[in-house]
């Protein structure tokens, strides 16, 4: 297999989901985030701390890059050298993109991170040995490593604060990698309920914590396979296909009126999160 | 390998579902609590407790006064997470970061647990009985004029009880103080529209022109306005709303604007009149008032280009209705009321009144209507303290020692009050100065009713109920304390109420018919009310009509250059820290400021051009000196600020309060001059002039933005498109 052959026909060689013999069924969890609605307010990030037992690391550890925010708001300025950012800032909620061909999965020496049948990039804490290869290989830098044993670190969860911890979510110990799970505990709960009633999970039954908090409804989450799901409709309207690395939008000459895109698509991780471009008025 | 048709859950079922769940639940808890968990009997759980299942209770968020309804998730008797109550017309199921951090207020390790009596520099724990006896003793022979009660904004039954307590002494000195409040706007609106807080319909506007109103971050009712904003962006008739933000320091709302304009500090009113002039539609006396505000002059005075003024006027003319808002940036000057009046006049000229500035409803119980806090109240209290008028000072829901401008010397003046009682959650700066400190229940373990100042679509009374048992045996609710104090005064009237819960229940049931519960029996109505967490009502509607006299407008020329203090100090109001009362909630400290991404510290925003002129680099420790004092903080080069201004965020720089607040950052309130708005008497928060100098020290700024300082370096990460390239009406 020559390198040229590998590069040119990557899509055929690379193992990504859904694969033909094991398609996503009945679930493929996905998200879409409308950057025109996102105001950068950070409500999603705090919701994630509350839901997923994220430790507050404090100023010193934050300075060392050890912050654990699974959901973070990135802020970008224009780079055109104008005196003022007179079209505002660009905000981008960034969390694990639950890639279908996740770069983190292939490098894990112990298969602690792998793919679930419903299209999540999962992290098995008690299998993780802390090599941190996954974090190094993640193009989005959304994996967070437990450098300390936070449950026993001063002022992380002192005294009564432990009572706030969500019993549905593991509190991670030292030496393991963690990241956004798409609130898998909520997904599991909904699946259990649905299974008990002999049906599949319906649109709206699972909300991620970030989506639930978002004051502008910028975040949609759901089952990409379900034609009733908002994410399904949004992805379809934007003609973004999960298993393609080039979308209709990219192929249109001279721009397109589609807004949907995935970040770093050219690296072919096939992310499960679609962003909708922020819009700015041309008349002012 | 387990066959794929037999998954983990089926496997657990075989094991015995409940047994497995108990085992798993147990593991999780012991590892974090060192075995200190409470054993819940699974066969005989307490009422409403289903082991392993979250139960949701409705209540009201107490982190700010917006009155969002919350839906608290409770498991095994512990509140875990606050979510929004979808039935509320204010937040419709949504929550901001500040609100969600309410659980950290409740579980905060630094909460006060015992009543404390001053003994020299120390607080000595005493019993409640002793504390009450002490208050009774100190109040003996004190006349109404010698008592002062300082509170934050207050409403509902608590307001009624407090009023009755003060009444029992014939005391009229209730000071409702909020350090960050739209006090000038309320006064200006009252004059312009006849109501202090009309309904603003951002979602009906095609253009919003905001003069520093940070409605997405911290202004009035941000979660509600954020939802309106989302609708506004989707557009009326498919035409996406356009947001223009004019301010000297970029706020979160400014960062989301289609056009953000850096205006010379204090000239917002001039620009508003300039736009009226450029519209050319005004007649009569309004035309006469604005005739001198031609493009050339307005541009010279405000720093906004003539072309931009024309563009704004053209857009406002083309797309109607629009909405013009006056925020803290316009209000914060000695001529703040005039700025706000000029901005309101622009709304009138554009014909927005009645369309996007609408009539509002009020709750039909006048005794429950909120007494909104402002800063003029602080001045009156301070004046009284200076004069030595007060023998007893009560302080609840405010921290004036931290938030009063340094020039007022509030801490020194507070010492002149004879006996000072603080009702507090933490031993904060004000509580430290008190003689008696009474520990309060958290909002998640207390009863109450609240009426928001800004009502969304109907009148609404919010109900607050405990989401769990009290954490600490010796804290008490403010309502219970007031009731106990009232029993000292008017025993006959109040002896029938065992506690505040009984009082609230009786008070609501007595008005069952007026509250829309006529068809229910008492218990059903009460349970229904607690289940809903709010009562929606029809109340009297206050019409909005334009009634101001344009001739009265007097806008001063832009502030002259001040050689000694060349820069304007703009206090930054951030969505999560506001006036600093919640600075001890670690989620908020570690939540990056959306614009600078800085955490756990204060910073000085300075325009890169100005910084280059002064040879200041990021992380340089800067000394900021005003007439009142000086503070030191790290520099952050920030493009979204006028070069003649610097900004330091409020809320940090605590000297007390708790482990997550004390010692982090600096407090810009300390160097604020005491300048007042001439018409309303409110503090002019933007009037402090400063000079800055380098100290020679430099630190690494702790922030979340990447090494590139927030640049995409040509990568397609956060992408923007212009409106002429997309058709939003075709989207799903």
Descriptive overview:
The complex is a heterodimer of chains A (284) and B (732). With 284 residues, chain A is an alpha+beta fold. Chain A has a single domain (10-276), classed as Alpha-Beta Plaits (2-Layer Sandwich), CATH 3.30.70. Helices cover 23% and strands 14% of the residues of chain A. Chain A has helices at residues 3-8, 10-13, 43-52, 59-63, 103-107, 133-137, 184-196, 209-213, 230-237, 248-251; strands at 29-34, 72-76, 90-94, 113-115, 121-123, 144-145, 177-178, 219-223, 260-261, 273-276, 278-280. Chain A has a 4-stranded mixed β-sheet with strand order 8-1-10-9. A two-stranded antiparallel ribbon of chain A has the order 2-3. The mean pLDDT of chain A is 91. Chain B is an alpha/beta fold and 732 residues long. A 7-stranded mixed β-sheet of chain B has the order 5-4-17-16-15-6-7, sandwiched between helices. A 6-stranded mixed β-sheet of chain B has the order 23-25-24-27-22-26. A 4-stranded parallel β-sheet of chain B has the order 11-10-9-12. In chain B, a hairpin with an 8-residue loop joins strand 18 (448-450) and strand 19. Chain B is globular, with a radius of gyration of 27 Å. Chain B starts with 7 loop residues before the first helix and ends in a 10-residue tail after the last strand. The model of chain B is unreliable at 11-33 (pLDDT under 50). Chains A and B meet through helix 3, helix 4, strand 2, strand 3 and helix 8 of A and helix 2, strand 3, helix 8, strand 10 and helix 9 of B.
Compact overview of the structure:
With 284 residues, chain A is of the alpha+beta class.
Question: What is the first-to-last residue Cα distance of chain A?
Answer: 55 Å
Give the C-level CATH assignment of chain A.
Alpha Beta
- Span between N and C termini of chain B? 44 Å
Q: How many domains of chain B?
A: 3
Give the assembly state of these chains. heterodimer
Q: Which sequence of strands runs across the widest sheet of chain B?
A: 5-4-17-16-15-6-7
Order of neighbouring strands in the sheet with most strands of chain A:
8-1-10-9
| Overall helicity of chain B | 25-40%
How many strands, which pairing sense, and closed or not: the largest β-sheet of chain A? 4 strands, mixed
Instruction: Just name the CATH architecture of the largest domain in chain B.
Output: 3-Layer(aba) Sandwich
How many helices of chain B in DSSP terms?
A: 25
What is the number of helical segments of chain A per DSSP (H or I, 4+ residues)?
A: 10
What is the typical, i.e. mean, pLDDT of chain A? 91
The assigned structural class of chain A equals: alpha+beta
CATH class of the largest domain in chain B: Alpha Beta
Biggest sheet features of chain B? 7 strands, mixed
Could you say which overall geometry of chain B the principal axes of the C-alpha atoms support? Answer: globular
Label the CATH architecture of chain A: 2-Layer Sandwich
Strand content of chain A: 5-15%
């Amino acid at each position: 297999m020559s390198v040229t052959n590998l590069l040119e026909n990557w899509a055929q060689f690379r193992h990504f989901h859904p694969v033909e013999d094991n398609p996503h069924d009945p679930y493929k969890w996905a998200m879409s985030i409308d950057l025109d609605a996102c105001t950068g307010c950070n409500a999603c990030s705090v919701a994630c701390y509350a839901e997923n037992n994220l430790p507050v690391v404090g100023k010193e550890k934050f300075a060392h890059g050890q912050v654990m925010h699974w959901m973070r708001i990135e802020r970008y300025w224009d780079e055109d050298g104008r005196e003022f950012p007179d079209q505002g800032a660009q905000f981008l909620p960034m969390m694990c993109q639950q890639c279908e061909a996740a770069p983190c999965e292939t490098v894990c020496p112990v298969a602690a991170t792998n793919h679930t049948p419903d299209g999540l990039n999962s992290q098995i804490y008690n299998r993780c040995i802390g090599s941190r290869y996954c974090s190094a290989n993640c193009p989005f830098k959304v994996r967070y490593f437990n450098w300390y044993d936070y449950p026993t670190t001063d002022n992380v969860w002192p005294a009564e604060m432990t009572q706030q911890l969500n019993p549905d979510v593991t509190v991670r110990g030292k030496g393991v990698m963690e990241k956004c799970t798409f609130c898998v505990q909520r997904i599991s709960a909904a699946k259990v309920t649905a299974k008990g009633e002999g049906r599949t999970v319906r649109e709206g039954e699972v909300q991620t914590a970030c989506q639930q908090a978002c004051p502008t409804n910028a975040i949609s989450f759901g089952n990409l396979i379900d034609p009733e799901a908002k994410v399904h409709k949004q992805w379809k309207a934007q003609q973004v296909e999960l298993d393609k690395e080039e979308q209709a939008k990219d192929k249109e000459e001279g721009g397109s009126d589609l807004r949907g895109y995935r970040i770093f698509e050219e690296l072919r991780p096939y992310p499960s999160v679609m962003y909708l471009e922020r819009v700015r008025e041309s008349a002012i | 390998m387990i066959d794929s048709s037999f998954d983990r859950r089926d496997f657990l079922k075989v094991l015995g579902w409940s047994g497995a769940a108990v085992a798993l639940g147990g593991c999780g808890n012991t590892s974090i609590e060192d075995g200190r968990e409470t054993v819940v009997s699974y066969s005989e759980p307490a009422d409403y407790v289903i082991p392993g299942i979250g139960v949701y209770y409705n209540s009201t968020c107490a982190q700010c006064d917006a009155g969002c309804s919350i839906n608290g998730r409770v498991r095994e008797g512990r509140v875990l997470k606050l979510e929004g109550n979808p039935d509320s017309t204010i937040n419709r199921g949504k929550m901001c970061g500040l609100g969600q951090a309410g659980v950290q207020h409740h579980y905060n390790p630094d909460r006060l647990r015992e009543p404390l009596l001053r003994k020299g520099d120390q607080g000595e724990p005493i019993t409640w009985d002793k504390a009450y006896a002490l208050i009774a003793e100190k109040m003996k022979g004190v006349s109404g004029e010698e008592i002062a009660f300082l509170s934050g904004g207050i409403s509902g039954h608590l307001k009624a009880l407090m009023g009755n307590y003060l009444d029992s002494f014939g005391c009229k000195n209730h000071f409702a103080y909020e350090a960050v409040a739209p006090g000038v706007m309320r006064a200006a609106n009252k004059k312009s529209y006849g109501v202090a807080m009309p309904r603003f319909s951002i979602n009906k506007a095609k253009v919003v022109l905001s003069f520093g109103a940070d409605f997405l971050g911290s202004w009035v009712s941000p979660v509600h306005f954020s939802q309106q904003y989302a609708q506004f962006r989707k557009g009326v008739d498919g035409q996406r709303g356009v947001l223009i933000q004019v301010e000297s320091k970029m706020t979160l709302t400014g960062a989301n604007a289609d056009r953000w304009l850096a205006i010379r500090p204090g000239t917002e009113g001039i620009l508003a009149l300039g736009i009226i002039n450029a519209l050319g539609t005004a007649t009569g006396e309004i035309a006469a008032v604005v005739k001198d505000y031609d493009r050339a002059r307005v541009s010279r005075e405000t720093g906004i280009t003539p072309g931009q003024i024309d563009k704004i006027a053209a857009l406002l003319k083309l797309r109607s209705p629009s909405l013009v808002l006056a925020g803290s940036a316009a209000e914060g000057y000695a001529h703040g009321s005039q700025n706000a009046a000029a901005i309101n006049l622009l709304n009138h000229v554009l014909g927005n009144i009645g369309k996007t500035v609408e009539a509002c409803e009020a709750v039909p119980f006048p005794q429950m209507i909120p007494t909104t806090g402002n800063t003029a109240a602080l001045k009156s209290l301070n004046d009284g303290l200076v004069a030595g008028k007060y023998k007893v000072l009560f302080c609840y829901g405010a921290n004036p020692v931290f938030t009063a401008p340094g020039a007022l010397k509030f801490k020194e003046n507070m010492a002149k009050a004879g006996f000072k009682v603080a009702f507090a959650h933490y031993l904060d700066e004000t509580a430290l100065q008190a003689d008696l400190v009474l520990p309060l229940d958290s909002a998640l373990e207390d009863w109450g009713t609240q009426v928001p100042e800004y009502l969304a679509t109907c009148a609404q009374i919010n109900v607050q109920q405990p989401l769990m048992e009290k954490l600490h045996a010796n804290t008490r609710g403010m309502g219970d304390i007031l009731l106990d104090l009232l029993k000292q005064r008017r025993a006959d009237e109040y002896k029938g109420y065992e506690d505040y819960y009984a009082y609230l229940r009786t008070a609501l049931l007595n008005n069952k018919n007026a509250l829309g519960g006529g068809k229910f029996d008492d218990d059903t109505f009460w349970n229904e009310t607690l289940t809903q967490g709010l009562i929606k009502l029809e109340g009297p509607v206050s019409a909005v009509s334009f009634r101001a006299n344009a001739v009265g407008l007097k806008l001063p020329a832009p502030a002259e250059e001040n050689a000694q203090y060349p820069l304007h100090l703009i206090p930054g109001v951030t969505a999560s820290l506001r006036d600093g009362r919640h600075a001890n909630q670690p989620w908020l400290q570690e939540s990056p400021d959306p614009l600078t991404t800085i955490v756990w510290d204060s910073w000085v925003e300075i325009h890169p051009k100005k910084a280059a002129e002064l040879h200041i680099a990021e992380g340089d420790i800067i000394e900021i000196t005003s007439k009142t004092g000086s503070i030191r903080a790290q520099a952050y080069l920030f493009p979204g600020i006028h070069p003649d201004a610097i900004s330091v965020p409020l809320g940090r720089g605590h000297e007390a309060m708790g482990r997550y607040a004390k010692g982090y950052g600096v407090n810009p309130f300390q160097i604020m001059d005491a300048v007042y708005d001439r018409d309303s008497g409110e503090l002019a928060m933007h009037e402090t002039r400063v000079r800055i100098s380098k100290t020679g020290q430099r630190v690494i700024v702790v922030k979340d933005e990447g090494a590139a300082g927030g640049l995409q370096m040509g990568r397609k990460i956060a992408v923007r498109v212009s409106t002429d390239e997309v058709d939003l009406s075709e989207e799903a």
